[in-house]
Write a structure and sequence with these properties.
2 domains; about 30% helix; globular
């Protein structure tokens, strides 16, 4: 076994038992909330979602992956958790560690969603008025909210917005197109990445990409324009927030 394969076999998940062990450690990490990133109620709801996901994994039949460069991966996406079947390529090794790798999601095997709250219930959970929650929605601050007819629903795993702007990437669902008179290039974009200008906090940059057609473009926006852009994307229901870098438990410490 060469070093690349050895490191790959050490680092990734190949069996249901691997997934469940990693999830057990992931839940422990969520409960700690070490950096006070979430309110207590949201932590409780995130753990509840993890437990629902664990129950779903336990119910299904998952074979041990023996074909090289295939692996399982789970993600916490803010309002849901997914188990994916992935394939690795272009693996680079440096100093006896995998320093780079291209990972492709070949299929999503399991999806479990959190519970959703009405505007009124979400407001009560965070001790604010419903009008405040509606303002957050209009300004694109609740990025995992979804439209249900004329009403809005908000995940019970989504905390109230913090001050300041957090960079975000939206990924348009397969084959969907977001139509907008104000932002017409959304219709040809698979990925929308928004960052704040470091030198001028009142300015923002939006990168629009389509990897299939190799289309790329950039928009410079004001704060109010960014708020309208995010509201347009969220209201469309055709995109989701890309997964952030998250805690990845190492499950093989005891075996070393």
């Amino acid at each position: 076994m060469d070093i690349k394969e050895k490191l790959f076999r050490e680092d990734y998940l190949f069996a249901r038992e691997d997934i469940l062990k990693a999830l057990e450690l992931f839940v422990e990490h969520e409960k700690l909330n070490e950096e006070n990133e979430y309110s207590n109620e949201v932590v409780k709801n995130r753990v509840k979602l993890c437990e629902k996901f664990i129950a779903a994994v336990k119910k299904c039949k998952l074979p041990v992956l023996i074909e090289l460069w295939w692996f399982y991966e789970y993600q916490f996406l803010g309002n849901s958790m997914e188990l994916n079947l992935c394939q690795a390529s272009e693996i680079e090794v440096k100093n006896d560690e995998i320093s780079g790798m291209t990972s492709t999601v070949e299929h999503t095997l399991i999806t479990v969603e959190c519970d959703y709250l009405t505007v009124e219930k979400y407001a009560a959970m965070h001790n604010v008025e419903p009008v405040t929650v509606r303002q957050w929605i209009r300004r694109g601050k609740l990025r995992h909210a979804k439209k249900n007819g004329r009403d809005w629903l908000i995940p019970d795993t989504e905390d109230k917005p913090r001050r300041g702007f957090t960079s975000v990437q939206y990924v348009v669902e397969n084959g969907e197109h977001i139509e907008s008179d104000e932002f017409p290039l959304l219709a040809v974009s698979e990925s929308i990445f928004i960052v704040q200008n470091e030198d001028n906090k009142s300015k923002f940059i939006c990168y629009l990409n389509n990897y299939k057609t190799k289309f790329r473009s950039k928009l410079e926006l004001t704060r109010s324009e960014v708020e309208r852009l995010e509201h347009t994307i969220i209201e469309s229901g055709k995109a989701r927030v890309a997964a952030n870098i998250q805690y990845v438990p190492y499950i093989r410490d005891e075996e070393d």
